[in-house]
TrEMBL record, chain A:
This is Dynactin subunit 4. Transmembrane segments: none annotated. InterPro entries: DCTN4. GO terms for cellular component: cell cortex; centrosome; dynactin complex; myofibril; stress fiber. It comes from Oncorhynchus mykiss.
TrEMBL record, chain B:
One of its GO terms (molecular function) is dynein complex binding. CDD domains: LbH_Dynactin_6. It comes from the Eukaryota. Keywords: Cytoplasm, Cytoskeleton, Kinetochore. GO terms for cellular component: dynactin complex; kinetochore. Its main location: nucleus. It comes from Oncorhynchus mykiss. Part of the dynactin complex that activates the molecular motor dynein for ultra-processive transport along microtubules. This is Dynactin subunit 6. Belongs to the dynactin subunits 5/6 family. Dynactin subunit 6 subfamily. GO terms for biological process: mitotic spindle organization. It is found in: Chromosome, Centromere, Kinetochore; Cytoplasm, Cytoskeleton. Signal peptide: none annotated.
């Protein structure tokens, strides 16, 4: 039953600014705070830019200059697929002897999905395979650039004034970029982040910036305000009577992907350079440690740092559900998997009456009261035939089976509500966690580095509809 | 006679593999290649296929009875399905269209209904199910999950290179069905 393994069946509760319930596969675990983190309680940072089709890395400065577009790859303006370069042989006169013709290669862009070619918009075939294709120029570029410069200057001035006011309150060792307010102002009008670490003893950076700015402020940029016109170009006379050529009309999506021109006709749709994608890294907001840091190489999908929850927290999965009947006790088989290599002790506790975290459950649940012991994950267990069988005294009423680092156990569910909808149960799972990360403060006594702490998580299971 | 109806008339120069299933009154023109496991079934009428077509594996060209008519009812005239020249029926497509022109490409797993008429240069994209009652104008491309349409400026190129290659290679690995010399209506007088 593959539907029992769907990710939204078993949800873990994350304590953050918002109480988020999501499946363990989407959560991260900060092992310095010893807490679960979801995507909404971490800060996302751009790690690197790369093109999805040619997988070329691009440094951030260059990406910003090229407006986050790849230099080599194009998107089909019709279906947004990646364009491929095709070659044809055309007879062309030789440069030495105009009377003889030789076969030369001519290149054009073509889309494999909707069969659009660059010849459809009148782009001539190029003689070089790459680099010959230019995007048409925006006639308003100069005005736009001037406006951007003016507003960037304005934003800088505003930012400095705000920093001046908040100077006293900001802690001196906080790096500039991570102050939430500064980030907000810096991103206004796209200035770009400037990470400036404040050295102890040196004058506070913003003040230093202030003095510099006043010197540079001599070149002030003035812009002419936009002028409103009284007369508008009239519509052509046959605007209402001319029959529509439907294949020629562009769709809204095609039009808006080219904001410079927004052509109404398909014969003006020029291909645009492909948009770059980013690799992002995640950082815990409380302790500022990295939770996820991908590798720099675009072709590699591995991570330098990967603190995902599934490799630290035991995972509960639903194995089989009997027919659930209203107010009748049913036995549900769950599995618990131990991701770490050491033995883990797990206790399950039902939710008490009036538990503020227990808002979704629609059934009463009786969890096994005894402590469950999970063996460590042994990567070589599959190959080691002479392994001693694990000797755990399992109560057959509680533990259904045991297989290396996984056990199956029973819980009893009594659905309490007769309405339509899924039967939801929740309970708390308490397990021991050995923090293998380096201790932040070195202990004076010879503390066993693998001292266990007990973590509790609130788990919700969605067991499916009632059977009449 | 019944026996004459069940023999396919394959013109000289066509390459039709033995493993393909051809049922009913089917005429296949010269330089057409029919791959093994292609199926051409003429149930409710004959099928005439022109020259230079490429019919790939698991393609199904079927002239079947419309859904509301029982096969044995009388008064149903057999309609001929005509397929022009230089068409490509890619792997796994199904075509029931009664009239297909020239230079069309029906991509993999496309599905054409009986009431469609393809003119020339049309491309029916992969997995597109088109079941309307219309004539598709020339050089139309139907693509995407929503069967979007656009018109291209040039028709797809005939697959001459591929046809030549297949006509050389297929006989090396498969047995071919026997060709029949088609009698032409006008025989040039020779001295």
């Amino acid at each position: 039953m593959a539907s029992l393994l769907q990710p939204d069946r078993v949800l873990y509760l994350v304590h953050g600014e918002k109480k988020i319930r999501s499946s363990l596969s989407t959560l991260y675990f900060c092992r310095y705070c010893s807490e679960l983190r979801s995507l909404e309680c971490v800060s996302h940072e751009v790690d690197s830019h790369y093109c999805p089709s040619c997988l070329e890395n691009m440094p951030s400065a260059e990406a910003k200059l090229k407006k986050n577009r790849c230099a080599n790859c194009f998107d089909c303006p019709c279906c947004m697929h990646t364009l491929s370069t095709r070659a044809t042989n055309i007879p062309a006169p030789l440069p030495d002897d105009p009377s003889k013709t030789a076969m030369k290669k001519a290149y054009y862009l073509a889309c494999g999905f909707c069969r659009w070619t660059s010849r459809d918009v009148g782009m001539a075939d190029k003689s070089v395979a790459s680099g010959g294709w230019q995007e048409p120029d925006n006639p308003h570029t100069q005005r736009i650039n001037k406006l951007i410069e003016y507003y960037q200057q304005l934003a800088q001035r505003e930012k400095l004034e705000r920093d001046r006011k908040k100077l006293a309150r900001r802690r001196p060792y906080m790096p500039l970029a991570f102050s939430q307010h500064t980030i907000h102002v810096v991103e206004k009008y796209g200035l770009g982040t400037r990470l400036q670490r404040q050295r102890p003893g040196a004058p506070i950076t913003s003040l230093a910036g202030l003095s510099l700015k006043e010197g540079e402020d001599q070149k002030e940029i003035n812009i002419e305000p936009a002028q409103a016109l009284d007369e508008v170009e009239p519509l052509p006379e046959d605007y209402y009577t001319r029959p529509i050529n439907l294949p020629e009309v562009t769709s809204l999506r095609q039009r808006l992907l080219q904001p410079d021109f927004q052509p109404a006709g398909a014969s003006q749709l020029h291909p645009k350079h492909k948009h770059l994608l980013i690799k992002r890294s995640l950082r815990c907001r409380k302790c500022e440690h990295n939770l996820s840091k991908p590798e720099f190489n675009p072709t590699s999908i591995k991570f330098k740092i990967q603190l995902v929850a599934v490799s630290y927290i035991p995972e509960v999965r639903i194995m089989s559900i009997p027919n659930l009947r209203f107010q009748k006790e049913c036995q549900v088989l769950l599995t618990l998997t131990n991701p770490v290599e050491s033995i883990t002790h797990v206790t399950l506790v039902g939710c008490e009456e009036g538990d503020p975290e227990d808002i979704n459950s629609t059934a009463k649940v009786m969890v096994p009261t005894k402590e469950l012991v999970l063996a460590g994950k042994d990567a070589a267990a599959d190959y080691d035939e002479l392994a001693e069988p694990q000797d755990f005294q399992d109560d057959p009423d509680v533990v259904a089976f045991r297989k290396s680092n996984k056990i199956g156990f029973f819980i009893k569910v009594v659905p309490q509500r007769e309405e339509d909808g899924d039967v939801t149960v929740s309970f708390k799972i308490r397990h021991d966690f050995r923090n293998l990360a380096a201790p932040i403060r070195p202990s004076e006594e010879d503390d066993a580095p693998t001292e266990a702490i007990w973590l509790t998580h609130h788990v919700e299971l969605s067991l499916g509809p009632l059977v009449a | 006679t019944n026996s004459a109806k069940n023999v396919a008339k394959i013109a000289a120069g066509a390459v039709v593999c033995v493993e393909s299933e051809i049922r009913g009154e089917v005429t296949i023109g010269a330089r057409t290649v029919v791959h093994p496991k292609a199926r051409i079934i003429a149930e409710a009428g004959p099928i005439v296929i022109g020259e230079g077509n490429l019919i790939e594996e698991q393609a199904l060209i079927i002239n079947s009875y419309p859904e509301n008519i029982a096969p044995d009812s009388e008064g149903v005239e057999p309609k001929t399905m005509t397929i022009g020249i230089n068409n490509v029926f890619e792997v796994g497509c199904m075509s029931q269209a009664l009239k297909i022109g020239d230079n069309n490409v029906i991509e993999s797993k496309a599905d054409l209904g009986r009431n469609m008429i393809l003119t020339s240069g049309c491309i029916i994209g992969a997995c597109c199910q088109v079941n309307t009652c219309e004539v598709i104008p020339e050089n139309t491309v139907i693509f995407g999950s929503g069967c979007q349409r656009r018109v291209q400026t040039e028709r797809p190129q005939p697959q001459t290179l591929q046809l030549d290659f297949l006509m050389k290679i297929l006989p090396n690995y498969h047995h071919m069905k026997k060709t029949v010399k088609t009698t032409s209506a006008v025989t040039p007088a020779k001295n």
